[in-house]
Amino acid sequence: MSEDFNMSMRKFLKQVGVTSQQAIEEAMRNGGDTTGKTFEAKMVLTVDGIDLEHVVTGKIEGA
């Protein structure tokens, strides 16, 4: 793949990671007592113009 493609993808993924972490942290702060609780998480990535739907699931431990 081209260098421009690699750079734009890295920039996008960095933005996804940073903004997602901020959103999760804010929701946890505003969600009451999350201590000792485990939350199921799911991220769905779609890209317009190509046939892509990528799903990532995991668990987030409350603090």
Largest sheet: 2 strands, antiparallel
Residues in β-strands, percent: 25-35%
Q: Which H/E pattern describes the elements?
A: HEE
Taking the alpha carbons of the first and last residues, their distance comes to 40 Å
Quote the average pLDDT.
96
Protein described:
The chain has one domain. The longest helix is centred in the N-terminal third of the chain and has 28 residues, at 3-30. It contains 1 helix and 2 strands. The protein has 63 residues and is of the alpha+beta class. It is elongated, with a radius of gyration of 15 Å. Strand 1 and strand 2 (53-61) form a beta hairpin. The chain has one helix at 3-30; strands at residues 38-46, 53-61. The termini are far apart.
Key words describing this protein structure:
alpha+beta
What's the short version?
The chain is an alpha+beta fold and 63 residues long.
Write the layout of secondary structure elements.
Blueprint: H1 3-30, E1 38-46, E2 53-61
Antiparallel strand pairs: 1-2
